[in-house]
Amino acid sequence: MSKLLKGSVAGHLTKLTLPGIGGMLAIMVFNLTDTWFVSRLGTDELAAMGFTFAVVMIVGALAMGFSSGAGSIISRALGAKNKALAARTVTDGLFLTIVGTAIVSVVGYFTIDPLFTLLGAEGHVLELVREYMVIWYIGAVAAIMPPVSDGCLRASGDVVRPTIVMCIVALINVVLDPVLIFGWGPFPALGMKGAALATIIARVIAMIASLSFLHFKHGLIDWSRHRLSSVFASWKEIIRLGIPAALTQALNPVAQGFYIRLAAGVGGVQAVAAMATGTRIEAFLLIIAMAYGIAIVPFVGFNYGAEKHHRVQEARRISTRFAFIYAAASLLLLLPMAGMVSGWFSDDPTVIKLSTAYLLISVLGMTGGLISMWMSQLLNVIGKPRPVMSINLCRVFAFIIPLSLIGSKLFGFNGLVGGIALGNLLSGAQAYLLTRRQLRSSQAQA
């Protein structure tokens, strides 16, 4: 991938982004498929699936941390033409994932009832949660490994193969879900167990495929034995760099839970439904933005590792401009369509009105949210986790939560959403200034 070290910066970022869009869509299809088929079983089953999401997302933060930490080292090592370090990091990252997931799985397996009871599940719903999570915990390594191995592939500059794997796996999940949940043909109807089993089988296939690419295509799995001290040192560095990404992943549901609680207070069930509808539509709007964030990792890592700091600076400037363009395009798209799209999710006039308001107000803060997200990824790739921690902690606790609380008290639902938008803008400004300062400092030291 030495091509990343020369030529158009914008061109490379575009080429790295395009395959990622397909991957993001595949992940959405994968997640929505389980929910849709389980919803056909009944309200209790759908509620049980809702309870599992919170825990699965928290465990997923573990994978995000391992993937981000390893990816930072891998991309910089390959940029510096140190393939041995890259291969060692891939291997150590994979084993760290196995060990970490095994510990979480054992603890989670034996605490299913008390944990989900604490979250509010009871009676038949708790039994359904147990059916799903027992299988999920047993196969957790397969569930968590693909995001890590795919992250290692992307960090090496290979953004196409992870997308192909995810698209195939999403298709397999679409086929397996109805077969195992409802019992088509010779297969018995397994209900929630079938949903969990379909997920694990699909993830096992993804794990085998991505590990095969890492080993056979890129030669990035090192089977040689190393001293435990060097392995632990590698794990420590992966965890140090991965903590901000894991924290960000874990903070998102915390912040969303706070918004929903505020929405319930200012507008009741209809405001909660509007918030849920708005965030779903917003997730589709951000597919390209998420893919672009993935593209930042190999490009910045390779160029930073090769000490081409001017190209990293150019990537920062392009990302900042793109954030403004992306938000403006989203606003132009939503102005005529927000109400119509909200109507696809609900026929309640109040829910449609509030959801439309959410989309049109929140998009005003999108520029800041994108800059915050992309600059966090850029800083983490160049090995600067502390500023990333500052950006994400301040975004949630110093900006969004206080401002949304104040806004909801003063102006109800619109004030709540306005507080979120303003918090994102302030977070974006902080991320912009911190990133510019860190890159200037790194360039001066080079």
Description:
There is one protein chain. This protein folds into two domains: 205 residues, no CATH class; 195 residues, no CATH class. It is 87% helix and 0% strand. Helix 3 runs antiparallel to helix 6.
Summarize the structure.
Helices cover 87% and strands 0% of the residues.
Radius of gyration, rounded? 22 Å
- SSE order in H/E notation? HHHHHHHHHHHHHH
Head-to-tail CA distance between termini = 23 Å
Q: Using the alpha-carbon principal axes, give the shape.
A: globular
The structural class is mainly alpha
Quaternary assembly: single chain
Number of domains as seen in the coordinates: 2
What's the count of strands? 0
Average pLDDT taken over every residue: 88
Query: Major beta sheet, specifics?
Result: none
Poorly predicted regions: none
Helix content: over 70%
| Number of alpha- plus pi-helical segments | 14
Strand content: under 5%
Key attributes of the depicted protein:
446 residues, mainly alpha, 2 domains
Topology:
Blueprint: H1 9-39, H2 43-79, H3 83-109, H4 112-119, H5 123-138, H6 140-155, H7 160-182, H8 192-217, H9 228-285, H10 287-305, H11 309-343, H12 349-362, H13 366-381, H14 385-445
Helix pairs in contact: 1-7, 1-10, 2-3, 2-5, 2-6, 2-9, 2-10, 3-5, 3-6, 3-9, 4-5, 5-8, 6-8, 7-8, 9-12, 9-14, 10-11, 10-13, 11-12, 11-13, 11-14, 12-14, 13-14
